[in-house]
Amino acid sequence: MKKHFFLLSVLLLISFMAKAQLIKDRTNGKVTLGFDLYTDINTGSKYENFNLRAINQGFGTYLTYNFPMGESKHTVSLGAGVSFHNYYMKDSWLSEPYNTVITFEEASVKKSKIMIGYFDIPMELNFRIVDKFKISFGAKVGFLMTSRSKVIGDVFGDSHKWEVKYGSINSLENIVYSAFARIGYRCVNLFVGYQFNSSFKQDRGPEILPFSIGIGIRAY
User: What is the pLDDT, as a whole number, of residue 1?
Assistant: First the structure.
């Protein structure tokens, strides 16, 4: 199973890179397609029973239009995309996601997470240092698009392994603001980002202020 997942990931990555390069070639570099894979570290305050594991993988994709800065190779980019953040909890689960105030209950779980997805509008400054190297700084506004929770484990204390899913989570902020930076070589870039306001409304749930670290792929 792991071998098949790895092969599928490689094939998808190769396909994505090919499509990104094709868009770059056809638009003379004016349009960029990108993909980010990252882990989130929550820098927010502690919240009862909301303890996250070390790795909380997320991903995003985006399409930008690049405006040149005068006669230079530097550009200003504006675009749209989507991003998804997964928060994996240890020994707890979200039992009542529709409440006004979100609480987490202790339980013996195999897997427990909440997912939050955003529609993003990013703006980015791209500086090409030499032909193959690029440094970028940007900011984006994220509009809440989807949310859900999932848990697998003995959540009801009856020694039975349950799988419970909810299709939405209450009390999330509708708009979040983030900044990010990249340093890239050819089509690969290292990515860091920080979200300035919490994913949940104040006093309605945990303070989630993710610091994201990851790798990105796009035609250079």
Answer: 45
Confidence check: pLDDT of 65 > 80: yes
- The percentage of the chain sitting over the pLDDT mark of 70, rounded to a whole number, equals 86
CA separation, residue 175 to residues 62, 115, 160 (Å): 18, 16, 39
Q: How far, rounded to the nearest angstrom, does the alpha carbon of residue 182 sit from its chain's CA centroid?
A: 15
10, pLDDT greater than 80: no
Rounded to whole angstroms, the Cα distance separating 214 from 194 reads: 12
Cα–Cα distance measured from residue 22 to residue 217, given in angstroms and rounded to the nearest whole number? 14
Instruction: Report the top-level CATH class of 2-218.
Output: mainly beta
Report how far residue 184's alpha carbon sits from residue 38's, in angstroms, rounded to the nearest whole number: 15
Nearest alpha-carbon partner for 141 in 204, 201, 200, 78: 78
pLDDT at position 179 is 98
Could you give the count of Cα atoms lying within 13 Å of 101 in the half-sphere of its Cβ?
5
Q: Where are the alpha helices (DSSP H) in the chain?
A: 2-26
| pTM of the predicted model as reported, rounded to 2 decimal places | 0.87
